[in-house]
Task: inverse folding
């Protein structure tokens, strides 16, 4: 057992590096090479003890399950599925169809199916926007105001690459909420 | 090498062996001296390890807080460097600890803790920078999975404790991850079992321990003296009176009554358990256990300003309640002071502290009340650590370290001034580290002189 310990440690260290690196690489690739999408949201401001303050939001998910689902019958809670994205005339993207297999063409996101009591067919791929603790309260106020403003609704920008999405920004009126919160706090 | 528990049990058996003529008195004295010397050496080693772990926790937490204060100014590349550089450093340090100091817990335990802290912060930083999807349960599950192999590699008891705490923390919220959680628990079981039993062959030890406990509990169960019974009776009567009065007070809402009952209930249970500790009766030990947990939870709540803002005296008619509580607290102090048990003064003093903090809250000094609450927990943890060192009780030292770790974690996750917290943590970490170094050097000089 004594001789095994350095090997166990080495394997553990490799696993740690792989886990952190894989997360980073996947997101970096999506941000560099993925297709940009914008989507309208709604939200509030809770706290994650390890990753700090974040703005929580919900994404609109009126999605119909594909006809394939009847044959496969496997959109039970926790199952992996794929939701396609469609760009509207106003430039905003929306979820189109939930599929059991990845589509041959077009942008899509890999998601997890929700419980049957959920109003959506799947768990939304993005639900949080992390930001500096000092800016979070100000950002929450701005988001709250924007949600009641029909002229400048808040939106998220994300890039999609082979089913993996990376959140790029949360904007109000075309400007980043981080920038707006900093300006507002500075006043 | 024999465990500390073996030496303790051996020392306990010696008088019986001398009485039965198995060994002469001189041999028993020599064995007793040897056992004491070993347990002293063992206690010193454990203290070094615990101080090392505390130093690692404090400095690690201080650095993280310092970095998070200036986080917004750093570009993403620099933020990612903060993720990878500590991780690489702790991996190298851990590798050195395992290969060159593999049998020295004083190296392995802090190295294990630093590695897991660096891993947790690396995952958190990458998730934050790239806005990765995932709940707290997902984060904890990944961390538990990554803790597994280092736990075996370092043979770390601290990581076992972290794993156990993380596992139980995930149970309420981690329903979706349950199959993976169970799998991880199974994989960790051999090491957790080993940590819990101290590496001693369970079968042999259990047979002897069970026999000894059975032998002691039967006569012990009837040896509770009249004096102790009187004290227990007084404690029970006071508790009932208190309950009656609280239920009869008008004009106060339920939260105040519940708040007043909590510390008194915990202290009654704890003191009742201690009063009968000599009997080794299982029910009283369970009572003591429940009381201790409740007492600890209450002490933790007292470290938050919001707690004293919520529960404070101040409504008209409360003077009577204050007087009553004051009298009760003095009685508890008197009762508790007469107990022959380490840590009795901390528990006995708590009702007075609680009352003082409620009064401070009533006069809008919740900040001072919060500071007193934190100071109390700090002294409690440090007191247990020192008491465990003096009595050579690893169990007591573990509890002291546990209390201090909980306090560090609570303050780390608090939402007040980050920079102030960072400097306090770094200062304390450096102080503990320096103390540990001085302590180690002093020990080495004493051993060389001996």
Result:
């Amino acid at each position: 057992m004594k001789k095994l310990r350095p090997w166990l440690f080495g394997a553990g260290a490799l696993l740690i590096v792989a886990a952190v690196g894989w997360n980073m690489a996947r997101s970096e690739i999506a941000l560099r090479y993925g297709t940009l999408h914008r989507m309208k949201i709604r939200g509030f401001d809770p706290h994650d003890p390890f990753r700090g303050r974040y703005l929580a939001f919900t994404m609109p998910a009126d999605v119909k399950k594909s006809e394939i689902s009847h044959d496969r019958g496997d959109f039970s809670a926790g199952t992996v599925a794929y939701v396609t994205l469609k760009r509207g005339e106003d430039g905003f993207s929306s979820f189109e169809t939930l599929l059991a297999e990845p589509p041959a063409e077009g942008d899509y996101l890999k998601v997890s199916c929700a419980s049957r009591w959920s109003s959506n067919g799947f768990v939304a791929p993005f639900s949080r926007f992390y930001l500096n603790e000092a800016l979070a309260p100000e950002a929450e106020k701005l988001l709250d105001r924007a949600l009641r403003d029909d002229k400048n609704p808040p939106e998220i920008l994300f890039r999609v690459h082979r089913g993996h999405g990376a959140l790029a920004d949360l904007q109000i009126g075309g400007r980043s909420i981080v920038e707006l919160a900093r300006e507002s706090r500075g006043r | 090498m024999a465990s500390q528990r073996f030496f303790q049990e051996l020392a306990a058996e010696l008088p019986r062996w001398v009485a039965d003529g198995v060994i002469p008195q001189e041999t028993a004295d020599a064995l007793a001296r040897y056992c004491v010397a070993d347990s002293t050496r063992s206690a010193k080693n454990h203290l070094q390890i615990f101080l090392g772990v505390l130093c690692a926790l404090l400095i690690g937490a201080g650095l993280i807080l310092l970095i998070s204060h200036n986080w917004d100014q750093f570009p993403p590349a620099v933020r990612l460097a903060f993720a990878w550089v500590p991780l690489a450093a702790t991996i190298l340090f851990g590798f050195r600890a395992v290969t060159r100091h593999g049998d020295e817990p004083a190296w392995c335990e802090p190295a294990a803790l630093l590695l897991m802290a660096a891993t947790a912060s690396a995952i958190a930083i990458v998730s934050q920078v790239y806005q990765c999807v995932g709940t707290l349960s997902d984060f904890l599950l990944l961390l538990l999975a990554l803790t597994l192999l280092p736990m075996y590699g370092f043979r770390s008891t601290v990581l076992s404790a972290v794993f156990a705490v993380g596992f139980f923390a995930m149970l309420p919220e981690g329903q979706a991850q349950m199959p993976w959680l169970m799998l991880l628990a199974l994989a960790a079981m051999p090491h957790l079992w080993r940590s819990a039993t101290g590496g001693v062959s369970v079968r042999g030890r259990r047979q002897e321990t069970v026999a000894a406990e059975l032998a002691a509990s039967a006569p012990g169960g009837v040896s509770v003296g009249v004096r102790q019974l009187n004290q227990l009776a007084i404690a029970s009567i006071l508790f009932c009176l208190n309950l009656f009065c609280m239920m009869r007070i008008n004009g106060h809402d339920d939260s105040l009554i519940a708040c007043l009952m909590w510390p008194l209930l915990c202290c009654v249970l704890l003191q009742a358990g201690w009063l009968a500790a000599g009997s080794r009766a299982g029910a009283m030990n369970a009572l003591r256990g429940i009381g201790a947990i409740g007492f600890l939870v209450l002490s933790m709540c007292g470290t938050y300003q919001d707690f004293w803002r919520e529960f404070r005296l101040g409504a008209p008619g409360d003077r009577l309640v204050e007087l009553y509580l004051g009298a009760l607290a003095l009685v508890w102090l008197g009762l508790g002071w007469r107990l022959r048990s380490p840590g009795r003064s901390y528990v006995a003093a708590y009702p007075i502290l609680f009352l003082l903090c409620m009064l401070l809250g009533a006069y809008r000094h919740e900040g001072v009340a919060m500071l007193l609450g934190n100071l109390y927990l700090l002294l409690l943890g440090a007191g247990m650590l020192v008491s465990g060192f003096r009595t050579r009780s690893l169990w007591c030292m573990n509890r002291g370290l546990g209390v201090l770790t909980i306090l560090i974690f609570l303050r780390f996750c608090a939402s007040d001034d980050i920079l102030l917290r960072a400097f306090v943590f770094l200062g304390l970490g450096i102080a503990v580290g320096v103390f540990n170094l001085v302590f180690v050097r002093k020990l080495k000089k004493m051993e060389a002189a001996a």
The first strand of chain A starts at residue 35 and ends at 40. Residues 4-33 of chain A form the longest helix (30 residues). Residues 67-71 of chain A have pLDDT under 50 and may be disordered. The helical segments of chain A are 4-33, 68-72, 136-147, 177-186.
